[in-house]
Amino acid sequence: MELKEIKELMKAFDASGSSYFEIEDQGFKLKLKKPSDIKVQAAPVTVAPQPSAQVAVETPQISTEEKVEGDVVKAPLVGVFYSAPSPDEKPYVQVGDKVKEGQVLCLIEAMKMMSEITAPRDGVIKEIYVKNQDVVGFEEQLFLIGD
Asked: Number of helices and strands (H, E) in the chain?
């Protein structure tokens, strides 16, 4: 693994909501961990003040008011989210699209490798939580697939 690739991974990890990342590639092993006292900046979250309550700011969650049922598709790795196969093509999916199990939903680029993220089941795209070219963290919410 080259120094440039390591720096790109570290930058993506630093910008992500993840607190831990580990990768092993051809005998090279890299572990990244953020100290627990560092707050990760994510999407703005409004919380009613409560005495001595801790608020973990990571990825936007579905509010209790929405109560949208379905399965959340999460990022299996840290990288850059791409909603389309190339900049001049339309996105793989949009809110309201029907998808089949195994259908490509997006791409995540890590270390110049593109990984296809596929639908875990048949359903309808209810939510898309990230925007094209956002850096996503491990286990960050990408899509909500409902009935």
From this structure: 1, 10
